[in-house]
UniProtKB/TrEMBL annotation:
Its main location: membrane. This is ABC transporter ATP-binding protein. Keywords: ATP-binding, Membrane, Nucleotide-binding, Transmembrane, Transmembrane helix. Residues 364-597 form the ABC transporter domain. It comes from Deinococcus lacus.
Amino acid sequence: MTRPSPALTPAEGLPSRPALRSPGSLLSALRPLWALAAPYRGLFALGVAASLVSSGLNLAFPLLFGRLVDASFLRVGSTDTGPLDRTVLLLLGVFALSALFAAAQSYLLARVGAGVVATLRERLFGHLLTLSPRFFAEHRTGDLTSRLTADVGTVQGVSSTALAGLLTQTVTLLGSAALLIYSNPRLSLYALIGLPVIIGAAVLIGRQIRAVSREVQDAVAAANASAEEAISGVRVVQSFTAEKLERGRYGQGVAASFAAALRRAGWQALMGGTMSFLTFGSLALVLWFGGRQVMAGDLTPGALVSFLFYAIQVGGAIAGLTGLVNQFQEAAGASGRIFELLEERSELRDPAAPRPLADMRGTVQFEAVDFEYGGEPILRGISLDAQPGQTVALVGPSGAGKTTLVNLLPRFWDVTAGRILLDGHDIREYAVADLRAHIGLVPQDTQLFSGTVEGNIRYGRPGATDAEVEAAARAANAHDFIEALPHGYATVVGERGLKLSGGQRQRVAIARALLKNPRVLILDEATSALDNQSEALVQAALDRLMQGRTTFVIAHRLSTIQGAGEILVMERGQIAERGTHAELLARGGLYRELHRTWAERDSEGQRGPD
């Protein structure tokens, strides 16, 4: 497709992530989260400081326990309990301070994690809204919502509690290992001899866990996508009694995710078992050699107890880090899926210096427009000229390219060749948001949101007053039925507006378009699915909506076609005929055949075909 040369400016704060396209390292996969944490780095620093203090105080526990043992066992028969009492009081004080700083660390880092995830979720959703229809045509909704919910949730666990655990366990491991070596170098050799093996095993198995975690997340997303499609189209599913088919399709997705989850559980079990054996095997060696030193008189019982506690802290830290590695590996897979979406860029680019579009007249010109999708030609050589206030009707058999043509005007797609002019300038010279602000759309399949009637109308102009909302509803022949609803304008319409009838939904959509007050209007078969009574009300509202606006209408009704300033008859992506109603009838051809069919159906009380 031809596109303006200027590129979109990357979203603020989003780092480039080439490492995500290959397994890479764990740190490289999680590094982009650090960029999102910029507003919270002060809190993060305080959390780290609290973690260091808490972990440092924990390192005093084994030493004080050792003193407690020596004060008890080496002073057997003595009535002086002062050393014992002082040691216990000191131990309780250290416990209290450690608990205080641990609580502060937990809150501060949880606050950082929650903030990062909130920013990430908002950034991801906002970015998805900027992508073009082509992107959504190529991605399943269930997969996108899975990334927005499940994957972000996985990252949240890592960026809060797991992050706090990582800091604590790292300080504990390093501090305990240092104190082990300082207190008894020979005994430390037995305690730490398995450490390189433990770390190597953790790295090797952790890579497998990360790869399988990505498989699990992809499989869950695929199952969610299948469920999303079945639930959103449940009426079709039930009408074709395809419940068993959809259950089987979803079951296949669940089975795939289950199998991947079992593989991940197997690797995690191997990780846990390996770490447990190596860690506690090292402790057994410590007990054996330390016991021999106590028996030989080279070590006091309290010193051995202190050493054992430090060794246990080392083993516990290693076990804790092993579990955290599993979590971080899962988060790395989820982070990759999230940032792959954030790296997506819409092919509908804004120019570097958009042309202002404050006062639009509404002159629309198509100049030799071609459009292809997937290498297949959809439109060829489309040229037309619509003047301000004129109505252009598009007719033709289903699949002729009518809807595709009108979707090029608000730049849901860009032309492959040729250009579209608005008020004499290529529409790609305007910012996409400015262009669409002046174009209104009333589709055949009306999309309402699950809020109130008032909220759906106000969607056309969020800053509108209540009086303006009501005036738009009256002009759309919607006010009377809205007032008759249980809560009037405050009535909740349900998902996709399913609590309203088809005609009511269309009139709410027309009210929304009226409130927006666009200069260019697109009506895509807006009355095709309505009964005669609803159609009459909707058509009257449409007539008001079209007044003074440049309108493109994909038409079914003869009255709309007959009143159009120009009728374009489309066939196989081209304009086969053009002219007024009278001219086309007199000329014969495809339009006369379509008109004869519509007239016969109208005489039978039916509407025209697609």
